[in-house]
Amino acid sequence: MKRQRLLSVAVLLLAALHYASGQDLKLNDREYFEQQGVNVLVYSNLFTGGFNDEKNAGIELIHHGVRTAQGGAVRLSNTPEQWDLVPDILNRKVDRAAKTIEATLRYKEYNFDSRVVVTAKGKGVEIAVYLDQPVPKALEGSAGFNLEFLPSQYWAKNYLVDGRPNLFPRYVVGNTVTKPNSLKPKQYKGYVTSDDRGTGKFIDPLPLETGRTFLFAPDAQERMVKITSSDADLMLYDGRMLAQNGWFVVRSLLPAGKTGKVLTWTVEPNAIKGWIREPNIGFSQVGYLPAQPKVAVIELDKKDKPAKSASIFRVGDDGNPTKVFTGKIAPWGDYFKYHYVKFDFSSVKTPGIYYIQYGNIKTNNFLIGDQVYSKITDATSDIWIPIHMNHMFVNEAYRVWHGEPFKEGYRQAPPNTDHFDLHAQGPTTDTKYKPLELIPGLNVGGFFDAGDFDIETGSNISVVQNFVKTWESFKPLRDQTFIDQKQRYVDLHRPDGTPDVLQFIEHGTLNLVAQAEILGHMAQTLSNAVLDNYHHLGDAASLTDNLPYNPKLGPYEVAKDGRSSGVKDDLWAFTSRDPELDLRAATMFAAASRALKGYNDDLSARALQQSKRLLKEATTLLANQKQDTSGRGNAANMATNLQLYIATSEKQYLTRFQELLWPALERNVSGNLLTALDAIPHLDASYKEKLRPYVVKYKDYIAGLEKDNPYGVPIGLTNWAGSGDVMNFGTTICFATKFFPEIIEGQHAFKATNYLFGAHPYHNYSLVATVGATRPKAVFYGNNRADFSFIPGNVAPGILFRKPDHFENYDDWPFLWGQNEGTIGGNTAYLIFGSAFKNLIR
């Protein structure tokens, strides 16, 4: 024991010496604290409502290029969950002279305000909490200051608490207690994140350690952080006790009955002397065609000196590499935090296995060959999409992905009900069904939205449209999935004689037609009634007990005949009518009716009937509403009229389409050109000529992207990363070059594949699961995210922008949906893009 303590003291002394040699943090022009290797952001990214605890906000630490800590704020629980209350940030003040950033935080539910002041202090920052009024009685023992650390960057590393050594656990371990629900702080809108099984108690994690000085990761200098407090205990919690997406939490309680400066921490992130971020060599992990442009985009630390050249090595038949090309590095410039250069090796055309050498950095291998893109959509269409078929039993070889979900069906959502997934039931049901009445016939077809199991109607509408566009444009005959609607059974890798895409169209249309026929219009969503079901991970069939709720039974009681239960786990249909959603459905039904004709004629006729009815009714409803200034209604109406004209050849639809199209193109050519191109095969030559100036305008848009960023694609800067924008960009190019090759060069589409498959900021992994010669991403956000795995073919949203200048995509932490969650809409958009791209290069 004595020797162990001596070793601990020695480590602390070495750490202290290391801190002494570092540079001081400075308040930079982008209003965060910085030194080389360390960025401390202070409320640059704010907490939001809805999903609340998104692990993307508060005081954040970007440590040697990786965002390792976040959430720094006054919080009301030891390990905040996703729907726990978050503070409103009332103001943010930067005082350069005092080297401080200050914010006022408010919990309006408790009329509780606090001020957090962060001050540069040597190699770290001082975080101080000020109160003008004491902590409310209801929050005494609950309100505290938290800072959360990313588990994947710390597990299996050491930490010291007042000199006592310990180890961050790889998997959640520790102790909890249960407390009466009356003591639990309020959650967002009164939601409850767990099922107490009738006990009336909630789970509260206990600290792993308590002390006044914490030293994280003394065994890993790039992650070493020292936290001290002279006026309060520091407690370390493991947030994974309550939720798999929880982080390690350092927390100090705010004292009761005190005002003024009530809490002070000093946080000192270690900065490795002379550290420079390793170059990120962006290239296509899928590889390259021999004749295509081949340009690597190299992301550099601004303090790094660019090399003058880079080289290409070919791996020979004997396994030995040979240098086959050396080329100059071309500067591009700065883009947010980093500097960018490019390396063009288009002259390398011989098929084979290659890698790039830039300075001391050697990439993994990639391929050059004629068939590198031939299978880019197979995993998505063969595996990811059928796994997300709702109301079906899905099997793959020895594995059952999920049983048949939701056999009990869906109930009518009660009026004036807010939903935790940002839906709401209005003051009436807008249907003939009474609140909580079982709606027969909705549990058929449809696709899981994403990492959860609801049917988002808007997403499913887009999905069917994507399938129809893929089918009508490219007629993919690929058949690798057995789908039987009568048996409600799917078996992967088993051909059944019918093209899979046609069966996917049928499956999606079955649910959406059922909504239109049974409800009279489209539902907003078919989703969970209780929150502890919504965040379910695992087999969708186990999300509910598959028995309809019986109010005559006690909680968790099963009827003697086994046909109902007292479990309130049934899913609800949120049915408030939205005429814009009905218009989108009308578009989809018109398109689906064409695709299904000759395969499922009954469903085809029903879809066309609902398309005409919904178009007429929705147009009338919109005319009676306040004028839509967003353009969304017109865009939906425009596409609907085009699809109905294609389906029926009735001139009234063509006339209305053209009335809406040209103003839409004037407003936004990049967002509407693809719809305009869809009409070319069905209209005369004069239409194509009238469209030509807008295609020229789109060419200018492409040129502008080259100046906007080093990748030449639209990069989204919102809280959902931009893979979808990149795919839409690539798809538009593929169709534009088909009809206007003299204006739009097809080679621009390679920018989209390069970006998706590895040439992007932060890292160079392919954003499509299992697609890439050597290095696709390894973890994604899906219903299997707690396993730190992926569903093959999943397309990540991609590289997420964090204000003011940081891009990221975690490949060791799947739980941030804005960068890692594949959606049925996004993945079917990828199916279109991949199909269009393969058609282009053929």
From TrEMBL:
Active site: D812, E821
Cellulase Ig-like domain boundaries: 278-361
GO BP term, pick one: cellulose catabolic process
InterPro entries from the UniProt entry: 6-hairpin_glycosidase_sf (IPR008928), 6hp_glycosidase-like_sf (IPR012341), Cellulase_Ig-like (IPR004197), Glyco_hydro_9 (IPR001701), Glyco_hydro_9_Asp/Glu_AS (IPR033126), Ig-like_fold (IPR013783), Ig_E-set (IPR014756)
Ranges for domain Glycoside hydrolase family: 571-830
Assigned EC number: 3.2.1.4
Entry superkingdom: Bacteria
A Pfam family this chain is assigned to: Glyco_hydro_9
Catalytic reactions on record: Endohydrolysis of (1->4)-beta-D-glucosidic linkages in cellulose, lichenin and cereal beta-D-glucans
Signal peptide (residue range): 1-22
Keywords from the UniProt entry: Carbohydrate metabolism, Cellulose degradation, Glycosidase, Hydrolase, Polysaccharide degradation, Signal
GO MF: cellulase activity
Family from the record: Belongs to the glycosyl hydrolase 9 (cellulase E) family.
Protein name per the record: Endoglucanase
Biological source species: Rufibacter glacialis
